[in-house]
């Protein structure tokens, strides 16, 4: 990470830093305002508008993306702190030559959205949740006696709990749960 | 042509679905242009008074800040019909959160820093934001939301109620509620020479264009308003909100493209809310259960900016046969943010109260609550005396009861215990009026054999594109995939907004008519089509808006099963089921999503959603999505939505009634009634949060001793 | 949000130095609360010292049976760690009851401890708040305070601490490890957060320039039955209205060890020492639990609109204690 002084002069604190991110497989080096969060970098700087700004405070999940494979609220991540990270957004989910990731297809098949504003976040969050369950991470509703390290089977209750950080005001929840069930291995 | 099967009713996939699941659907703030600026409003920090000075030097010194607009330098507006849009026009502060400045900057970060640096001096006045039923300033308005009279009275309701054999006299309270669509209100505006283009998150861009033309003194022909994708509205984007006015002001002031994306926390104060309603309901009945008198009196608040009266006593004019009745609205103007539409305004809170009271009456009478409703089914609309164009409430109740397994229910409250859980079930009826407005549309047959239909409908998540294409294909006798549809721009044939569950009926009527005309023209056309095809235009003014001799409403029945945790007072819905009679259902797939979505919002209204007006400061305490609890995944169980086929020739060419709102209407009462059945405690104030439920359970235990 | 300098620390000493020498410096962990508060203008750091990549991201089982959790271990990883799940289950349950999957993936152990209250008056810079702006008054005391404290509040502040995790740490006798210019030290988790008194701006006993380096879960509570339960307004993704963490051991028909802490009722996780004392040596009956919890909650001073918290906390505690000791009664 490099840094440079800003225009206020030598004694003023630095306000920008160079940050390198890999986004959907492509490297980007940007001089970012320290205040800028990943969500705004994706949208304003990289023209990736899939991650949505629903609350800007980690209270709705519409901005969810995968950072180094983990689902996070991009509205609360200062971009300057992510130097060297790998970011995957809804735009980067489909494999090479595929039009859609299977979960995106399932959302279409199940009509798992209405206005669509929470949808990219729901999809990224669901993929993160599926990975977490496969790695044996428990949720609040997982049987406490379940063995450690073994995959957690995602029934409807597990999916609901694990996706609760993604609000949907249109009320597509039951269809979203079905779409996730469709792609669970 | 007859060989093409009808596609009306088919579960066609959403036309914009691919864009939404891949993240390429663009919303109003997602319109980058070279030189685009970002503007952030500064909300007033007092509840009532005047701005005496705005110190902008510090804000202008923030790197990246380009301008600060205040009432002293903002462009002057022609006085709007909707006074909430008269932003930055004078020093008055009518409520906390009213915008008093706008900071325009190169980036959103700079705009935020600039807004924090604006210093506003006020001359504060005493304020009153507390609604009470006995408030001395309350009055009966001339009319209420929807244009209905505030009062309707038949017979001698007081006297007859007083002498009725069985009486219920109860008070309910519904708190302020917030729409909170997932996309906060946002607008991006720019000029191309003399031409203004605005992308805005709105339920109807034709209305936005007309409003901007009026406010800024511009001819409508020079304005394009686009609302291609809209992240929900639920009433709060029905008409323009201050964001679009500010965006146009800022772009006019700076000459640059400007985006105003309202922060979530500002929404409660400036985009409208469902006003709190205080209900007094009196139901008188004969021992056989037939209603003798129905009185529903509502007190609500409005702001000092404009009068908006939640029409919560309206459903009592529609629902039940009673020879004597009174429905009455009172309103108290307070120093509060302006209320506005929220999904099923009037019906949602009104039916919560009425249907809860019906449940109480059923208990008093010892009559099954389904049967009580059936036996009070009216022959004609009680208030107007008009015949119903169609009314299948009884069928909804019967079908719902069958599917839900209602007959297996032990009617005794508190009769079903599972360890620490008390389990109960409840029922409520729902109604929503049929509304329709005139619209225009154009249909064009293209030389390649395809069709293009153009109408300024708005798809706020309802699936308008999809269902209108179905309407068109049906009228054209064409395969669905040959019909292309354009919506979401004021450059298209003008159309009313997506609101009042009237969108599909209004737009669909004009689409149907344009397509029917086009079919007629094609039938007499010989030879190949010209290069730009052949088109037909329709305008349903004079047909869609004629007074109907029929009382036209959709009906439904809601059933809920809940589990109440006696340790914590937490209520969880286990099952929710709705059956609707809403005319011809035009797309089974998107219709189901709308019904289920509205029931989910009703679940929130029952259990989790409530806002508090802070008496000292004059704002809503639950200002963000951490504090205002819209239901999360974990709150929402399997939800079933069914409908019965209804053939009603008195509606529109599609035979449809609106479906976007009725799902919320009966849900809160069904859940509240289920909580009563589970616990034996009747809570009369929403939402049914653990504090209230636990307190009621404890009081119930004390009483039981 | 005002502009700030950014420093990424590569060692604990470097972080502590930066924190001590740069005026207005704050530590950045997962950022889930700090960035939120910076956007609101509540936190206005001149420098952010990024500690999220310090080598404090491990969970280490120590020879004496205790568990050292690094300060930058993420909440989701801590909750999933087998030692935590099976030996200190109250901690795993508390973590999983908090926030959302996304937030737990970001939030760190140290940051969770240092998060600020969600009092709406604290979060709104246009309103008085003694915690945010000492001397400005308390908007909540006569305002909207359904979510506020019933125990240990003062005329200056009625805020609650929002953490679920910290409640479990308190009950489990965990210790918070700190490092600063004076070197390393540790304090009991139950003593880490303060009561507001007349200095509500001070949430914890952390000193100027000190950073949290980790948390130690003691061998003494390892494997002792423990649980966490919380009540809230929605089924997930909501702060507690009240919560309880309890660890209790029964031997020879009597309670031999008890740790009980309440969440969302006070300015800190409320360690129920009086209740614990009353239970030691008592038979693990529901009546004994009720009696003990009532002793503790007799100190409650509910406000106009939050009296429900007392019976709610009582019911939660009796329920959790009864369940934890069910096996011992049969």
Structural class of chain B: alpha+beta
| CATH homologous superfamily descriptor of the largest domain in chain B | Aldehyde oxidase/xanthine dehydrogenase, molybdopterin binding domain
Helix content of chain C: 25-40%
Q: Write out the strand line-up for the largest beta sheet of chain C, numbering strands in chain order.
A: 4-5-8-6-7
Average pLDDT score of chain C: 97
Beta content of chain B comes to: 15-25%
Shape of chain C: globular
CATH class of the domain at 225-329 in chain C: Alpha Beta
Basic shape of chain B: globular
Strands of the largest sheet of chain B, in order across it?
A: 3-5-1-14-11-12-13
The main pleated sheet of chain C reads as: 5 strands, antiparallel
Number of helical runs of chain B? 16
Within the CATH hierarchy, at the fold level, what is the topology of the largest domain in chain B? Aldehyde Oxidoreductase, domain 4
CATH superfamily of the domain at 225-329 in chain C: CO dehydrogenase flavoprotein, C-terminal domain
How much of the sequence of chain C is in beta strands? 15-25%
The value of Rg of chain B in angstroms is 26 Å
Supply the CATH architecture of the domain at 225-329 in chain C. Answer: 2-Layer Sandwich
Q: Count up the helices of chain C.
A: 14
Protein topology:
The complex is a heterotrimer of chains A (185), B (705) and C (330).
Chain A: E1 3-4, E2 16-23, E3 26-33, H1 38-45, E4 64-67, E5 70-73, E6 86-88, H2 102-110, H3 119-134, H4 156-162, H5 173-183
Parallel strand pairs in A: 2-6
Antiparallel strand pairs in A: 1-2, 2-3, 4-5, 4-6
Chain B: H1 17-22, E1 37-43, E2 49-55, H2 57-60, E3 65-70, E4 92-93, E5 99-105, H3 108-117, E6 119-124, E7 143-144, E8 148-149, E9 151-154, H4 157-162, E10 166-174, E11 186-192, E12 195-200, H5 205-216, E13 223-226, H6 242-254, E14 258-261, H7 267-270, E15 277-285, E16 291-302, E17 324-333, H8 347-365, H9 369-375, E18 388-390, H10 393-404, E19 417-418, E20 421-433, E21 440-445, E22 451-454, H11 464-476, E23 483-486, H12 503-524, E24 534-539, E25 551-565, E26 571-581, H13 588-607, E27 639-643, H14 662-665, H15 667-679, H16 690-704
Parallel strand pairs in B: 1-14, 12-13, 16-17, 18-25, 22-23, 26-27
Antiparallel strand pairs in B: 1-5, 2-4, 2-6, 3-5, 7-8, 9-17, 10-15, 11-12, 11-14, 15-16, 19-20, 20-25, 21-22, 21-24, 25-26
Helix pairs in contact in B: 8-15, 11-12, 13-15
Chain C: E1 5-8, H1 12-21, E2 25-28, H2 34-40, E3 47-50, E4 59-61, E5 67-70, H3 75-80, H4 82-87, H5 89-96, H6 101-106, H7 109-114, H8 120-123, H9 165-171, E6 175-180, E7 183-188, H10 189-192, E8 211-217, E9 226-232, E10 240-251, E11 254-263, E12 270-271, H11 273-279, H12 286-297, H13 309-324, H14 326-329
Parallel strand pairs in C: 1-3, 2-3
Antiparallel strand pairs in C: 4-5, 5-8, 6-7, 6-8, 9-10, 10-11, 11-12
């Amino acid at each position: 990470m490099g840094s440079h002084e800003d225009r206020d002069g030598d004694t003023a604190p630095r306000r920008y830093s160079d940050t390198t991110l890999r986004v959907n497989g492509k490297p980007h080096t940007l001089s970012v305002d320290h205040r800028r969060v990943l969500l705004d970098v994706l949208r304003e700087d990289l023209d990736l508008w899939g991650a949505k700004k629903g609350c800007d405070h980690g209270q709705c999940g519409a901005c969810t993306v995968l950072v180094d494979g983990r689902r996070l609220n991009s509205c609360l991540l200062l971009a300057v702190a992510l130097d060297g990270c790998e970011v995957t957004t809804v735009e980067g989910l489909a494999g090479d030559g595929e039009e859609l990731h299977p979960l995106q297809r399932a959302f279409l098949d199940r009509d798992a959205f209405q206005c669509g504003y929470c949808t990219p976040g729901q999809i990224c969050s669901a993929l993160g949740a599926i990975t977490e369950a496969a790695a044996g991470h428990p949720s609040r509703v997982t049987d406490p006696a379940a063995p450690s390290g073994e995959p957690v089977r995602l029934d409807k209750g597990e999916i609901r709990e694990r996706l609760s950080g993604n609000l949907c005001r249109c009320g597509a929840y039951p269809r979203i749960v079905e779409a996730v069930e469709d792609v669970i291995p | 042509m007859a060989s093409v099967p009808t596609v009306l009713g088919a579960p066609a996939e959403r036309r914009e679905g691919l864009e939404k699941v891949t993240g390429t659907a663009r919303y109003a703030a997602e319109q980058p242009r070279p030189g685009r600026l970002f503007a952030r409003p500064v909300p007033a920090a007092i509840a009532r008074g005047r701005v005496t000075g705005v110190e902008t030097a510090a804000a202008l010194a923030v790197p990246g800040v380009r301008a600060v607009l205040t009432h002293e330098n903002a462009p002057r507006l022609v006085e709007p019909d909707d006074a909430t849009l008269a932003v930055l026009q004078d020093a008055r502060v009518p409520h906390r959160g009213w915008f008093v400045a706008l900071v325009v900057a190169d980036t959103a970060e700079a705009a935020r820093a600039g807004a924090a640096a604006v210093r506003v001096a006020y001359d504060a006045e005493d304020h009153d934001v507390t609604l009470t039923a006995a408030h001395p300033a309350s009055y009966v308005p001339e009319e209420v939301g929807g244009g209905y009279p505030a009062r309707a009275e038949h017979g001698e309701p007081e006297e007859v109620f007083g002498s009725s054999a069985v009486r219920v006299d109860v008070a309910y309270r519904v708190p302020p509620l917030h729409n909170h669509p997932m996309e906060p209100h946002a607008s991006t505006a720019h000029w191309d020479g003399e031409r203004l283009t605005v992308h805005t998150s709105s339920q109807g861009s034709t209305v936005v264009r007309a409003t901007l033309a009026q406010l800024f003194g511009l001819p409508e022909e020079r304005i394009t308003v686009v609302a291609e994708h809209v992240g929900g509205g639920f009433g709060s984007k029905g008409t323009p909100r201050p964001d679009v006015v500010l965006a146009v002001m800022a772009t006019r002031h700076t000459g640059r493209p400007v985006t105003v994306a309202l922060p979530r926390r500002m929404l409660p104060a400036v985009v409208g809310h469902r006003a709190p309603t205080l209900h007094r309901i009196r139901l008188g009945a004969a021992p056989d259960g037939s209603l003798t008198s129905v009185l529903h009196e509502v007190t609500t608040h409005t702001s000092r900016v404009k009068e908006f009266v939640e029409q919560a006593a309206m459903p009592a004019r529609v629902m039940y046969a009673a020879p004597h009745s009174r429905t009455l609205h009172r309103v108290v103007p307070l120093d509060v943010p302006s209320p506005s539409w929220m999904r099923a305004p009037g019906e949602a809170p009104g039916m919560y109260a009425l249907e809860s009271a019906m449940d109480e009456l059923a208990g008093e009478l010892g009559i099954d609550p389904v049967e009580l409703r059936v036996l009070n089914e009216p022959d004609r609309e009680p208030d107007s005396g008009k015949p119903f164009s169609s009314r299948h409430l009884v069928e909804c109740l019967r079908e719902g009861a069958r599917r839900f397994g209602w007959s297996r229910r032990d009617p005794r409250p508190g009769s079903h215990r599972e360890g620490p859980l008390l389990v109960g079930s409840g029922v409520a009826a729902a109604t929503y009026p049929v509304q329709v407005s005139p619209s225009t549309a154009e249909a064009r047959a293209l030389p390649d054999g395809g069709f293009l239909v153009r109408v300024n409908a708005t798809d706020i998540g309802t699936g308008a594109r999809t269902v209108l294409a179905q309407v068109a294909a049906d009228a054209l006798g064409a395969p669905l995939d040959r019909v292309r549809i354009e919506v979401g721009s004021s450059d298209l044939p003008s159309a009313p907004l997506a609101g009042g569950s009237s969108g599909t009926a209004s737009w669909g009527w004009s689409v149907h008519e344009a397509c029917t005309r086009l079919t007629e023209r094609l039938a007499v056309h010989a030879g190949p089509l010209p290069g730009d095809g052949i088109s037909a235009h329709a305008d349903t003014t004079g047909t869609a808006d004629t007074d109907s001799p029929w009382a036209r409403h959709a009906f439904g029945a809601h059933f809920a099963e809940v589990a109440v945790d006696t340790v914590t007072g937490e209520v969880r819905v286990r099952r929710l089921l709705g059956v609707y009679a809403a005319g011809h259902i035009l797309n089974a797939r998107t219709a189901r999503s709308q019904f289920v979505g509205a029931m989910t919002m009703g679940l929130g209204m029952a259990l989790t959603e409530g806002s508090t007006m802070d008496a000292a400061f004059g704002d809503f305490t639950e200002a963000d999505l951490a504090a205002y609890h819209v239901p999360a995944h974990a709150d929402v169980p399997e939800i079933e939505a069914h409908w019965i086929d209804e053939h009603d020739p008195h509606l529109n060419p599609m035979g449809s009634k609106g479906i976007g709102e009725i799902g919320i209407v009966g849900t809160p009462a069904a859940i509240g009634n289920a909580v009563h059945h589970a616990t034996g405690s009747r809570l009369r104030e929403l939402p049914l949060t653990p504090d209230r439920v636990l307190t009621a359970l404890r009081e119930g235990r004390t009483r039981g001793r | 949000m005002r502009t700030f300098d950014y420093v990424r620390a590569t060692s604990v000493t470097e972080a502590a130095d930066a924190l001590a020498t740069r005026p207005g410096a704050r530590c950045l962990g997962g950022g889930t609360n700090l960035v939120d508060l910076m956007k609101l203008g509540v936190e206005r750091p001149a420098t952010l010292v990024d500690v999220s990549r310090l080598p404090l991201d491990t969970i280490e089982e120590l020879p004496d049976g205790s568990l050292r959790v690094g300060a930058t271990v993420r909440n989701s990883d801590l909750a999933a760690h087998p030692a935590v799940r099976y030996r200190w289950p109250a901690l795993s349950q508390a973590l999983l009851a908090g926030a959302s999957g996304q937030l737990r993936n970001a939030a760190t152990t140290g940051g969770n401890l240092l998060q600020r209250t969600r009092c709406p008056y604290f979060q709104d810079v246009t309103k008085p708040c003694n915690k945010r702006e000492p001397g400005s008054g308390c908007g909540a005391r006569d305002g909207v305070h359904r979510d506020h404290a019933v125990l240990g509040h003062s005329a200056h502040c009625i805020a609650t601490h929002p953490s679920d995790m910290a409640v479990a740490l308190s009950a489990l006798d965990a210790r918070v490890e700190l490092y600063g210019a004076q070197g390393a030290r540790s304090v009991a988790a139950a003593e880490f957060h303060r009561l507001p008194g007349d200095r509500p701006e001070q949430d914890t006993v952390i000193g100027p320039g000190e950073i949290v380096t980790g948390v130690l879960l003691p061998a003494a509570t390892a494997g002792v039955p423990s649980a966490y339960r919380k009540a809230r307004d929605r089924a997930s993704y909501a702060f507690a209205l009240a919560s309880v963490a309890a660890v209790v051991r029964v031997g020879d028909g009597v309670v031999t060890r008890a740790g009980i802490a309440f969440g969302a009722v006070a300015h800190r996780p409320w360690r129920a020492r009086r209740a614990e004392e009353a239970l030691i040596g008592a038979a693990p009956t529901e009546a004994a639990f009720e009696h003990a919890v009532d002793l503790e909650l007799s100190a409650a001073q509910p406000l106009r609109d939050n009296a429900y918290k007392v019976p709610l906390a009582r019911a939660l505690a009796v329920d959790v204690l009864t369940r934890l000791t069910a096996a011992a009664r049969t």
